[in-house]
Amino acid sequence: MAAKRVDPAANAAAFLDQDDIHEPAHDQNLWAARMKRDAAAKAIPEWEELRNIASQIKEHTLTHLDQYLEQFEANATKRGAKIYWARDAAEHNQHVWNILNERKISSIIKSKSMLQEECGMTQFLETRGITVTESDLGERIQQLDNQPPSHIVMPAIHKTPADIAKIFSKAIGTDPDNTDPHYLNEAMREDARKRFLQAGAGMTGANFAIAETGTFVVCTNEGNADIGAAVPRVHIASIGIEKILPKVTDLGIFIRLLSRSALGTLATQYTSHFSGPRKGGELHIIITDNGRSKRLGMDDFWHSLKCIRCGACMNTCPVYRRSGGLSYGATYSGPIGIILDPTFDESKYSELPYHSTLCGSCTDVCPVKIDISDQILRWRKVMAEKKYLPISRRLAFTAAGRIFERPTLFHGVETVASAALKITPHFLLYNRALNPWGRHRELPHFAKQTFREWFMQYKLKNQEDKQQP
Amino acid sequence: MKVALFIPCYIDAIYPEAGIATYELLQRFGVTVEYPPNQTCCGQPMANEGDQGNSAAAEKLFVQNFSGYDYIVGPAGSCVKHVKQHFDAIPQTDEVKAVRANTWELVEFLHDVLRVDALPWAYFRYKATLHNSCSSIRGLGIAQPSELMGPYFNKSEHLLRMVEGLELVPMDRPDECCGFGGTFCVTDEAVSAKMGLDKIDDYIRNEAEFIISPDMSCLMHQQGIARKAGIDLKFIHIAQVLNGGPF
Questions:
Q1: Given this model, what pLDDT does residue A466 score?
Q2: B138 vs A358: CB contact, 8 Å cut-off?
Q3: Does one domain contain both A205 and A340?
Q4: A339 and A425 together in one domain
Q5: Please, are residues A30 and A157 in contact by the beta-carbon 8 Å criterion?
Q6: Does A450 touch chain B (CB under 8 A)?
Q7: Residues spanned by the domain of A424
Q8: Both A162 and A224 in a single domain?
Q9: Mean pLDDT of all residues in chain A?
Q10: What is the C-alpha to C-alpha distance for residues B146 and B144, in angstroms, rounded to an integer?
Q11: Nearest CA in chain A to B179
């Protein structure tokens, strides 16, 4: 059965309508991140050059992916890591399960990984009796609230401290009325510590994987990935095939761009390099495709694979800021989500490309220069061609197309529209179902005389003037 | 110099004064301006919906109307951006390519082609703010987008600085989209309206009396929101300010 189509406009309306607190706070917090990003970028004279180089490195790597992936496998294996290949989510999850099951591991501690989100890994493991604990604070909040992350860098950014106090009071017994972030943070730290010590395996994702050395790099601000990888004996890392960089020297470019773009900070607090298992430990790396090579074959959309998951496009997106990430009903939200999600399910996500004003801000903040805004428009063409658009909208545009095609018809319609507006009762114009324009807006006043009519009169008058002696 | 005036459909019907101001302004600089009377729409509303089939006819007619001119000038950033950058529902013949290459947004044309350096007739004694549309900034590049790092420039502002009496006030979020977005304003009504309201808030905080823009479509949406909320703000096309009317 086809999955139900996500309606981001309706979801966003619900986010806006819930109260006067959540949406303004969400908008302001993310706008602050965008402002910090601007300041951080401005401090680097070669910023635009860095974006160019990063884009070129990614394009080169993506067009030579086979050789770099094999090079990474060979070098990581030499360092003692065990490499697994996963075509899709099912294979990825099966690998994880096999590793855990063979070692009789029943609880894991994990750091943030969008790939593991994509694969629905947590749910898969939980149904097999594994206790999964998110260790990133935002992810943990979302896990306890039974929600997916709403932002790829700040998973719980749509929540207020009061929301979090309520969730923590139920989950770990904090005072529901104490909304002090320091208090809440410390309480979760205490709760997480024992979970780190009890876990049989630590799981991470990776921000970058270096072909030349077989090393992968994980960037966090909380150090949670580091403890998760350092305490349990077994470390399992999920890496998407697009995370590869050819050389260590490439890394500097991306490290300089990543955190500045994401949060406006110079670098993440922790940038950890994992080169083989630690003494007495095991390192398992699952290199995962899950739709990426299909995307690589799409002429119009393969550039989206350059993404380094910084979230800058989400922070700057005026629509995302007013919608909340959960409105997109998908693993990835915001502008990058609009262009990634339909590659997983065109029908389910066919409305996402319309949840944008095409303002273009996402394209200009993207540190690897993905033409996000243009890709959103190209996805609309795909959706229109494949007739995913609701029939009412298709008919409206067919009618518009016919009118604009014929000048006399168009000029006739103009006259009728201006006359109709004068006589149509107010309730019809401002009825929510009949006319969404009027719910928050007065209708524009049609002019008594169109420009065309004015011009014809003006020209006539001019000619008459000239004819006078 | 043979210039064709491109008056987008909504300016024709709702804001003819912006069209008149554009026509008069161009004539002040000694430009011969013609107005092809059979023009309708550039096809943008359909194309932005992804509907190539229904935009093709409008695009074809546009080329018929505007072929053979040295310049095609339109007082509307988003329509011009559509013609220049997305006009691809019809085969790209030499004629189509020429029309696309010769199409200019009014501010760009005044600034880059006519190189206007004085507007002695222009007088506008108000506190106003400038809303350069997203299509004009990030699409056509009439100003340095705040997202990109580079030297500051703003062609509309440069022209407005020549208007006597005008006090330009800055905005807290100058490049932020107002939420019009074409069909977005009805298909995504709640978000669109909130974005517009936030824009209005920004104007009020910065005490602007007038909002001046090279893109009347954004202002149509913003004006609708301000009127409904009972807020007394005035919205005006940049051509009217640069030409000194009609108001």
A1: 74
A2: no
A3: no
A4: no
A5: yes
A6: yes
A7: 407-467
A8: yes
A9: 93
A10: 6
A11: A357
pLDDT digits (tens, 9 = 90+) for A281-327: 999 999 999 999 999 999 999 999 999 999 999 999 999 999 999 99
A67: number of Cβ within 10 Å: 12
Decide: A251 and A245 in contact? Cβ < 8 Å. Answer: yes
Look-up: residue for tokens 């016919």?
A402
Q: Where does the pLDDT of residue A461 fall: very low under 50, low under 70, confident under 90, or very high at 90 and above?
A: confident
Full-model pTM = 0.95
Question: Which chain A residues have a beta carbon less than 8 Å from that of B55?
Answer: 401
Query: CA-CA distances (angstroms) from residue B24 to A450, B4, B239?
Result: 16, 13, 9
pLDDT in tens, B177-228: 999 998 899 889 999 999 999 999 999 999 999 999 999 999 999 999 999 9
- In this complex, the residue of A41, A42, A360 whose CB is nearest that of residue B138 is A360
Tell me the residues of chain A between 367 and 386 that have a Cβ less than 8 Å away from chain B. Answer: 373, 377, 379-385
Look at residue A388 in the predicted model and tell me its pLDDT.
Answer: 86
List CB contacts (< 8 A) between B20 and chain A: 451, 454
- B228·A436 Cβ contact <8 A: no
| Nearest-5° Cα angle at B29, B136 to B95 | 55
Question: Where is the domain boundary, A338, A358, A389?
Answer: A389
For residue A434, pLDDT beyond 60: no
Contact yes or no for B224 and A437 at CB 8 A: yes
Q: State the nearest Cα–Cα gap between A302 and chain B, in angstroms.
A: 19
- CATH number assigned to the domain with residue range B127-243, chosen from the 4 options 2.60.40, 1.10.1760, 3.40.50, 3.30.460: 3.40.50
Cis geometry, peptide bond prior to residue B214 (ω within 30 degrees of 0): no
How close A410 gets to chain B, by Cα (Å)? 7
